[in-house]
Amino acid sequence: MPERMNVESFNLDHRAVAAPFVRVADVKRLPDGDVLTKYDVRFCQPNREHLEMTAVHSIEHSFAECVRNHSDAVIDFGPMGCQTGFYLIMVGEPDVPATCELVERTLRDVLALTEVPAANEIQCGWGAHHSLDAARAAVSEMLAHRDEWEQVMA
Predict the structure, then answer these.
(1) What is the pLDDT of residues 88-136, one digit of tens each?
(2) Distance between CA atoms of 43 and 58, rounded to whole angstroms?
(3) Domain-located, residue 52
(4) Is there a binding annotation on residue 82?
């Protein structure tokens, strides 16, 4: 393994994980006592599969909008550049089981959508670059493995 890097995910042996999973990727304790937890919400097995960009884009929009119906603790939900998952940043101490429940509830909301939120040129920088069908397929596959999400390593 190369020398330790500043970015936590760069220190993770991506060959040793078994996607899909939800794991704590980082915890930041802020000067005034607040805690931010970054979760790795991994849909695809690294270096073997990836999400197409229209799916990534549509999941990002849909999840980011829907998750806030369930939690005020959400700071951000954004895609990984490798297209294998997303980072969910929340206020509070790490709680993987509760976060898995939140992710599951939100993904079920995504499946019920009839259109991708804000998928237009007024609200999005590339409004035409979406696929609700691709998002639904990826979300369905993720949910099919719900009982495995807390098992990160192969």
Answers:
(1) 999 999 999 999 999 999 999 999 999 999 999 999 999 999 999 999 9
(2) 14
(3) yes
(4) no
Query: Is 124 among the annotated ligand-binding positions?
Result: yes
Residue 80 structure tokens: 């990984």
- Note every long-range contact of 50-56, with CB atoms under 8 Å and residues 24 or more positions apart, other chains counting: 50/82, 50/83, 50/84, 51/83, 51/84, 51/134, 51/138, 52/83, 52/131, 52/134, 53/83, 53/129, 54/129, 54/130, 54/131, 54/134, 54/135, 55/131, 55/134, 55/135, 55/137, 55/138, 56/83
**Phi, psi for residue 100 in degrees, rounded to 5:** -60, -40
Q: What is the pTM of this model?
A: 0.96
Report the amino acid identity of residue 16: A
Tell me the residue range of the domain where 63 lies.
16-145
Residue 141, domain CATH: 3.30.1360.80
